[in-house]
Write a structure and sequence with these properties.
Blueprint: H1 6-13, E1 42-43, E2 47-50, H2 59-77, E3 85-89, H3 93-100, E4 108-111, E5 114-117, H4 120-126, H5 129-146, H6 151-161
Helix pairs in contact: 2-5, 5-6
Length: about 170
């Protein structure tokens, strides 16, 4: 509003930030990691879940969680729930980053209509399993309705409707 350029604003809050076009994320001299195969998605009707072998015992609980969140969010958003939802829990953070192109500090991403999530143990350790699933479900259902609006609109909707807490130190909105 005061005419301050975006670069100056970003420079204040993120000193040393370099803005560049995103490209391949290669780490020089780092060993090339091969994807760890995970089990193919297993259908529970309307919810398909791909889990690494060590997490197979969690399938029923995850399907129940996804169905409940999907139904609640569809009602809240006023949209039809997707006919099928595919979740892919990655076996490692490196596999998640390589497959999605998103950084380790994100919890999930939508790629080709599938919800890709960090390893189940990581999400549980961070205490964000339910929130990460809800966040991606909001994107899956709301982004098509939001159309070509700026990305921050969809992210804000996902944060709000997923019930995520405000940034620490900031007052919660009424």
């Amino acid at each position: 509003a005061r005419g301050t350029p975006a670069s100056a604003i970003l420079g204040k809050y993120f000193p040393g930030l370099v803005i560049a076009q995103a490209g391949p994320r290669l780490i020089p001299d780092a060993p090339r990691l091969q994807p760890v195969p995970s089990a193919p998605p297993v259908s529970a009707g309307d919810v398909l879940v791909s889990l690494p072998d060590d997490d197979q015992g969690e399938r029923t609980a995850i399907v129940r969680l996804v169905r409940a969140a999907r139904d609640e969010l569809a009602g809240t958003l006023g949209v039809a729930p997707p006919a099928t939802i595919t979740l892919r829990f990655h076996p490692t953070i490196a596999d998640y980053e390589r497959t999605t192109g998103h950084a380790w500090f994100t919890s999930g991403a939508i790629v080709g209509g599938d919800l890709h999530l960090l390893p189940l143990a990581v999400l549980r350790e961070r205490g964000v399993l339910d929130r990460a699933i809800r966040h991606q479900l909001v994107h899956l259902m709301a982004d098509p309705v939001l159309g070509k609006r700026p990305a921050w609109v969809g992210v804000g909707a996902a944060i709000y409707f997923a019930g995520e807490r405000p940034i620490p130190g900031e007052a919660a909105a009424g």
